[in-house]
UniProtKB/TrEMBL annotation:
Residues 244-389 form the Helicase C-terminal domain. The lineage of its organism: Eukaryota, Viridiplantae, Streptophyta, Embryophyta, Tracheophyta. InterPro entries: DEAD/DEAH_box_helicase_dom (IPR011545), DEAD/DEAH_RhlB (IPR044742), Helicase_ATP-bd (IPR014001), Helicase_C-like (IPR001650), P-loop_NTPase (IPR027417). The keyword Ribonucleoprotein does not apply. Keywords: ATP-binding, Helicase, Hydrolase, Nucleotide-binding. SUPFAM superfamilies: P-loop containing nucleoside triphosphate hydrolases. It holds the Pfam family Helicase_C. This is (rape) hypothetical protein. Residues 32-219 form the Helicase ATP-binding domain.
Length: 439
């Protein structure tokens, strides 16, 4: 971290030394100086690239500077930094980072998250606190019960911001922001700095972010929306008669395995099939109670444990640091963004990994386009089953249009003359159909 030494105080550098972190990642080189300058930013970088430290280190330092220059002191129920995460598991993962840094930089953080009891949180909040990490719902519950007060909040972090805005957290986020924005209108109020963290950013989500946080600056690394460099990607095409479960057993052969399903029923079937074939598994999906999910993750991550295979839905695809050797997609995702999030569970922080996708006939076109984009080192941002099917259908229909015109006796000149009207009408029909379908 020598490149960041002029920006970071000795206490923060000491924490990095204890973590054996010596060289900053790309997002840390971009993010730390920007947050130090009190800019509100979106930090976009691939999974496992060190985004948590990219915002945490400068925020911790700015809190220390606020203490010295503005006389800010730590108070009960009045945190200065809020970090919101979409799930309890991700909140716990993020929380471990400030806990590690606090041993050197001397600040106090607590965790409030869904699925756990309120009373212990309430007792902790009655002590002096600097940072609260948790889920939006839990945070708002504590605000309503008077356990957390907005008055001193100076730094706001939304981790996995794309998930927050894409998966139904919008109302909670706006409810949380309303008092902060109202407070910022008051004379002499210092306002608050916002940091959004994401591994993907679609055009639709970016529009929502820009509307909610006007003037926010987007900082991205060149690897955003591209394949993970150290992961091998294999696409296994299945014939109509080939048994998908048998194919899964063929590729399930490395130490730490993560198997993704789209829905719960196949997840249960896969879990049962693997158990029958002497493969120890644990489950991770929305029907598993929160406490059990935490226990299952611990069993899976235990190096000496006997559960090397985690069977899961996309609930495990975003943010979690699982140190997986092999990601298997039993069900292929419907878009490239989910593909990126799933593959991001392996090959993290420079490690090597493998991704195997079982490709049914309905997924072959999307898989081929993703494979092609990765081979050409192109962005995977906009690829979905729907738009690829629309493109393929349009190409086939345009060819049919040309053939029909030729058969009618128009010849090449007639095709050129009539092609514009016929093709334009077909494109508009597809556009409207796709828009209505997506809506």
């Amino acid at each position: 971290m020598g490149a960041l030494k002029p920006d970071l105080i000795d206490e923060v550098m000491g924490a990095l030394k204890e973590m054996n972190i010596e060289v900053p990642t790309d997002i840390q080189c971009i993010g730390v100086p920007a947050v130090m300058e009190r800019k509100s930013v979106v930090l976009g970088s691939h999974t496992g690239s060190g985004k948590t430290l990219a915002y945490l280190l400068p925020i911790v330092q700015k809190m220390r500077e606020d203490e010295a220059s503005l006389g800010k002191i730590t108070k009960p129920r009045r945190p200065r930094t809020i970090a919101l995460c979409p799930t309890r598991e991700l909140s716990e993962q993020v929380y471990r980072v400030p806990k590690s840094v606090s041993h050197h930089a001397r600040f106090r953080s607590i965790l409030v998250s869904g699925g756990s009891r309120i009373r212990p949180h309430e007792d902790s909040l009655n002590n002096a606190i600097d940072m609260v990490v948790g889920t939006p719902g839990s945070f708002l519950q504590h605000v309503e019960e008077g356990n957390i007060v907005y008055g001193d909040i100076a730094y706001l972090v939304l981790d996995e911001a794309d998930t927050m805005f894409d998966r139904g957290f919008g109302p909670d986020i706006r409810k949380f922001l309303a008092p902060l924005k109202q407070r910022a209108l008051k004379t002499n109020d210092q306002g608050f700095q916002t940091v959004l963290v994401t591994a993907t950013m679609t055009t639709a989500v970016q529009k929502l972010v820009d509307e909610e946080f006007q003037g926010i600056e987007h900082l991205r690394t060149s690897a955003l929306h591209k394949k993970i460099a150290n992961a091998r990607h294999d696409f296994v095409k299945l014939s109509g008669s080939e048994d998908k479960l048998e194919a899964l057993l063929q590729v399930n052969c490395i130490i730490k395995i993560l198997i993704f399903e789209e829905v719960l029923e196949p997840s249960c079937a896969v879990d049962h099939y693997l158990s029958e074939n002497q493969v120890s598994t644990v489950n991770y999906h929305g029907e598993v109670p929160a406490e059990q999910r935490v226990d299952n993750l611990k069993k899976f991550k235990d190096e000496e444990g006997d559960c090397p295979t985690l069977v899961c839905t996309d609930l495990a695809a975003r943010g979690l640091d699982l140190d997986v050797d092999h990601v298997i997609m039993f069900d292929f995702p419907k878009n490239s963004i989910d593909y990126l999030h799933r593959t991001g569970r392996t090959a993290r922080m420079g490690a090597k990994g493998k991704v195997t996708s079982l490709i049914s006939r309905k997924d072959q076109m999307l898989a081929a386009r993703i494979d092609e984009a990765m081979r050409n080192n192109e962005s995977l941002e906009a690829l979905t089953n729907d738009n690829i099917l629309s493109i393929e259908s349009r190409e086939v229909s345009l060819q049919d249009c040309r053939i029909a015109l030729l058969k009618s006796g128009g010849g090449a000149a007639t095709v050129r003359e009539k092609k514009g009207t016929a093709c334009t009408s077909f494109f508009l029909f597809l556009h409207k159909k796709r828009f209505c379908f997506c809506y």
